[in-house]
Design a protein that fits this description.
The chain has 2 domains: 134 residues, Rossmann fold (3-Layer(aba) Sandwich), CATH 3.40.50.720; 187 residues, NAD(P)-binding Rossmann-like Domain (Rossmann fold). α6 packs across α8. It is α/β, with parallel strands linked by helices. A 7-stranded parallel beta sheet has the order 8-7-6-9-10-11-12, with helices on both faces. A 5-stranded parallel beta sheet has the order 2-1-3-4-5, with helices on both faces.
Length: 341
């Protein structure tokens, strides 16, 4: 079964305006990482639109951030699409196909769950330490050439709440324990838990979790139950002065309600990597903060440009997932991380 990496598969969104992308941001890096792990996969790396078009009719698998209706129609032997991100909502937002259309063709769609657990875990703690130590305030003082000493906080002995103990949430929990924190969290699954959190609650007890937390990390997937999850009522359930880090989709937060909580001191400070949908359909703008948002100018907010998962090693992690699922598929075994999961 041939695996196609289309010509437009890259990390181009992190290199705007760059025509000659660095190797680590290209499909060539992904192909090399796959072939380092196995020589049993025939990987087709298209270098142009024409090469992608020529390869589609015989491709049994495609790795991509999106698939247009035209590509889907041309890929007559397609059995499997490996989405390149852990969250599947962006795949459908930027594609011209629906899950129903894929199901009608018998095409399997898998997400890259866990692909960014290492880097986002590091990102989360960079944000937590920045907020608790007052880094945003120090940067503003530096820009003003103003010397003003102030007290910082610490994380040792504090309670960290993780909303969504999936692959990323578990990595954050593991790091938090190394910092001497008490870790609590929520998860959808009702089965036995053997992870790193000290105490786990069902999603229905989120308010209890929020009320205990000194620091809150949002790491849940976006679905009908979590869209707008952190609204005024839920933010009011938090401990006054809690810190908030969001690496889930921006739509999990109600921006106006968060601003109100930040202004009142209910939330002491927030580090935000993702924001709600914008008018632009460009992949790089799917999580962009609107230019007119008050969040830009708030001293207790750290705005990050949706780069929590962006490092040069991401395609190496993706290759692990691709090789595992490819081998499962050709062996007739169940694949991991079905998009319907």
């Amino acid at each position: 079964m041939k695996l196609l990496i289309p010509h437009d598969f890259s990390y181009e969104k992190y290199h705007p305006g760059v025509t000659d992308l660095p190797y680590d941001a290209t499909g060539a890096r992904l192909k090399d990482e796959i072939l380092r792990r196995t020589d049993a996969i025939e990987v087709i790396l298209a270098a142009s639109p024409e090469e992608t078009e020529a390869a589609l009719p015989t491709a049994g698998a495609i790795v991509s951030y999106s698939v247009s209706a035209e590509r889907l129609a041309a890929a007559r032997k397609l059995r499997w699409i490996q989405a390149a991100s852990a969250g599947i909502d962006h795949f459908f937002k930027s594609s011209g196909v629906s899950s129903a259309a894929l199901a009608a063709r018998g095409i399997i769609l898998t997400k890259a769950a866990g692909v960014s657990r290492i880097v986002i875990g590091e990102h989360v703690f960079a944000m937590i330490l920045a907020l608790t130590r007052g880094v945003p305030r120090a940067v503003r003082q530096q820009l003003d050439h103003r010397w003003e000493i102030f007290m910082g906080g610490e994380v040792h002995g504090r309670t960290l709440a993780i909303v969504g103990l999936g692959e990323i949430g578990e990595r954050v929990a593991e790091l938090a324990r190394a910092f001497g924190m008490t870790v609590i969290g929520t998860r959808r699954s009702e089965g036995a838990y053997h992870g790193h959190a000290h105490q786990v609650y069902p999603a229905t007890q989120l308010d209890t979790v929020l009320g205990r937390a000194d620091i809150i990390v949002l790491a849940c997937s976006l679905n009908d139950a979590t869209r707008g999850l952190m609204n005024r009522a839920r933010l009011s359930a938090t401990k006054r002065g809690a810190y908030l880090v969001n690496i889930a989709r921006g739509e999990v937060l109600v921006e106006a309600d968060l601003i109100e909580a930040l202004q009142s001191g209910r939330i002491a400070a927030a580090a935000l990597d993702t924001f709600g949908q914008t008018a632009s359909g460009a992949l790089r703008d799917l999580e962009a903060l609107r230019p007119e948002s008050p969040l830009w100018d708030m001293e207790n907010v750290l705005v990050m440009p949706n780069n929590a998962a962006a490092t040069s090693e991401i395609f190496a992690y993706l290759a692990d997932i691709i090789v595992d699922n490819y081998c499962r598929l050709v062996a007739g075994e169940p694949v991991l991380n079905l998009a319907s999961d």
